[in-house]
Amino acid sequence: MTLSITMTVNGDRLALTLDDPRTTLLDLLRDRVGLTGTKKGCDRGQCGACTVLVDGRRINSCLALAAAHDGSDITTVEGLAQGDDLHPVQAAFIAQDGFQCGYCTPGQIMSAVALIAEGEAGDDPERIREGMSGNICRCAAYAGITDAVREATRRMQQDERRSA
Amino acid sequence: MSDVIPMPVGPAGGHVRLGSNAGQSMTRRDGIAKVTGTATYAADNRPDRLLHAVYASASIARGRVTFLDTAAAEAHPGVVMVMTPANRPPLAIHPDEKVGMFGQKIEALQDDGVRYAGQPIALVVAETLEAAAEGARLLAPRYEALPPRIDIDAQPRFEAETVGFGFPAAHAVGDLEAGLAAAARVVERDYVTPAQYHNALEPHAIVAEWQGDRLIIDTPNQAIVMMRGVFAAYFDMPEENLLLRSPYLGGGFGSKAAVWGPQLLVILAAKALGRPVKLALRRDQMFGPVSHRGATRQKLRLGLDAEGRLTALEHRAAAVGSSFENFFEPAGRASENLYATPAMAMSHEGIRIDTGTPGAMRAPGEASGSAALESVMDEAAFELGLDPLEFRLRNYAETDPATGNPFSSKALRECYAQGAARFGWAGRPLQPRQMRDAAGLLTGWGMGTAIFPAPMFQATARAVLRADGSAVVETAAADMGQGAWTSLAQIAADGLGIDVSRLEFRSGSSDLPDAGVAGGSGHTATAGSALFNAGADAVAKLAELATKDPASPLFGAGNAAVVARDGRLMLADDESRGEAYEDILARAGLDLIEGHGKGVRGEAEAQSRAMFSHGAVFAEVKVDPDLGQVRVSRLVGAFAAGRIINPKLADSQLKGGMIWGIGFALQEEAIHDPRTGRPVNADLAGYHVPVNADVPHVEAITVHEDDPFVNTLGVKGVGEIGITGTVGAIANAVWHATGVRVRRFPIHPEDLIG
Question: Which residue segments constitute the domains of chain A, with CATH numbers given?
Answer without folding.
Answer: 3-79 (3.10.20.30), 88-163 (1.10.150.120)
